[in-house]
Amino acid sequence: MCKATDVKEQAETISKINYSTDRWLTAIVPGTVLNSLVYNKVYPEPYYGLNNKLEKNLIPDLAQSGRDTYTYWFRTEFNIPENYKNKIIWLQVNGINYRAEIWVNGHLLGNMAGMFKPDYINITDFAKVGQNNALAIKVYPIDMPGTVKPKKWGAANGEFHNGGDGNIGLNVTMLMSAGWDFTFMDGIRDRNTGIWKDIQLYATDKATLRYPFVKSELQKPYYDLAKETASIEVSNPMEDSVRCTVKGEITGEGISFAKEIALYGGETKIVTFTPEEYPQLIIKKPRLWWPRFKGTSELYELKMSVSVNGFISAETKSRFGIREITTDQNTPDHSRQFFVNGKKIFIRGANWVPEAMLRISDARTYAEMRYAHQAGVNLIRMWGGGIADSDYLFQLCDEMGFLVWQEFWMTGDTKHPHDADLYLSNVSATVKRLRNHPSLAYYVCSNESTEMPGIKDLLMKLDGTRAYQMESECDGVHDGSPYVQVNPMQYYENTASARGSRIDGFNPEYGFSNLPTVECLSEMMDKKDLWPINKEVWNYHEGGGFYGMTSFYKELAEKYGEIHSIEDFATKGQLVNAMDATTMWEVWNYNKFGYGDRYTSGLLFWYFNSPMRQVSSHLWDYSLEPNASLYYTQHALEPLHAQFDYLKNTVSVYNDYYRAFNDYKVTAEVYDLNCRKVWNHSKTIDIPEDGVVNDAFIIDFPANITQVHFIKLHLFDAKGKEVASTFYWRSKDKYEGKTTKTGPTTSGFEDLSKLKQVQLKLRFKSFTKEGRHYVEAEIKNPTSTLAFFTQLQLLDANGKLVRPSFYTDNFFSLLPGESKYVTIETATSDMPELSTFVVKGWNIKRQLFALK
Question: How many C-beta neighbours within 10 Å does residue 567 have?
Answer without folding.
Answer: 16
